[in-house]
Amino acid sequence: MKIVSIDEAMKKVHSGTKIYVQGSSSTPGTLLRALVDHVKENDLRDIYLYHIELEGPFSSMLESVRGRIHDISLFVGRSMRPCVPRGLTEYMPIFLSDIPWFIREDLHPDITFINVSTPDIHGHVSLGPSVIGVRAAIDNSGMVIAQLNDEVPRTFGDSTLPQSTVDYAIRNDEKLVEAEKFVITDQERRIAENIRTLIPNRATIQAGIGSIPDAVMPLLDDKKDLGIHTELLSEGMIRLIESGAVTNIHKNIDRYHSVATFCKGNQYVYDFINENPMILFRSVDYTNDTATIRKNDRVISINSAVEVDISGQVAAESIGSRVISGVGGQMDFVRGAALSRGGKAIIALKSKTRHGEPKIVPFLKQGAAVTTTRNHVQFVVTEFGIADLRGKTLAQRAHELIRISSPEFRDDLEKYAKEILPNF
Prior knowledge:
Shape: globular
Largest sheet: 8 strands, parallel
Low-confidence stretches: none
Number of domains: 2
Radius of gyration: 22 Å
CATH architecture of the largest domain: 3-Layer(aba) Sandwich
Oligomer: single chain
Helix content: 25-40%
Mean pLDDT: 96
Distance between the termini: 67 Å
Strand order of the largest sheet: 1-11-8-6-2-3-4-5
Strand content: 15-25%
Structural class: alpha/beta
CATH topology of the largest domain: Glutaconate Coenzyme A-transferase
CATH superfamily of the largest domain: Acetyl-CoA hydrolase/transferase C-terminal domain
């Protein structure tokens, strides 16, 4: 590993360079800001950036390099969301579990940007709170440029790397971006209370991003011997660990350890995971592999949706054709939980939007992507109850879903169901 100036590091980038960027909480902001300046100053063209969501101010810089930097998001988070309709970012639909495969078999990046801890006494650096597909990028990249950062927590699992994997490094200690906390409404608390009834003692928990999953976690602190095997490790999960409800003692794999591929949160979260040997950050093709997930018993997956139609189709990444998120790991865990002995896959959503529009609908909005197919969906939960779609016909599914829809929309939903389903 050669320590260089930021200008020397940027000289490795030329027109046509393909770069994979570690994202989420570990976004290397200093490298990205320098990249934008380097591209403008040297009139570079056709720089391709691939990443999951990027945190920080990078999205606001993309307009200045439009047509020069081609930005491709494998997951669209809040910071990158406004860039999609403006053509500053292109969304690539892909299961999170497939990202390492895509990097190995297709992308072959020229350079990988990472944000890592300084070397420990053994000469290892840590990827901190975000692994996902970065190990595959490092292993299949022509060059690795690191931002050495004392603010990055040292984590264990696939996040630990020998410093020899880094070709060039710059020093810059910038704080990790803290995730915005969701404001939880009474409506979401009622949904969380319904979800709680589906979660037994000794369950292994996965929960996605959002206010509903966040609302569930505080309600589980009286459960016994829970485990965590998840894509996202949230602050709510960490507080559940601290409460004693999580022991991981009954997991069949990674026993005694909570497993994730990334986490988002505040300094409390980063301090908790720092040098914590009971938290393992693994590559996403391990955490999200259905063959891995199903090895644990009683896996409970909790994920959110934008809309659900009365047959059970789930839209979670777009509102109509407007992209607001990504495929992520929803399908990975919905299927993995269903295959787990005693497992349950839960899709949770409010019955209507804040503008009063229904979220259980006759059909998804025109252009909407089906994130999770009706063949995979098991439980759908709103503030009005739980719809169990397992082993149900289309007519039975419609009855279940209409029953948990907002009351003012039920008559219209029933009218539509009678028109298209003879046995309704």
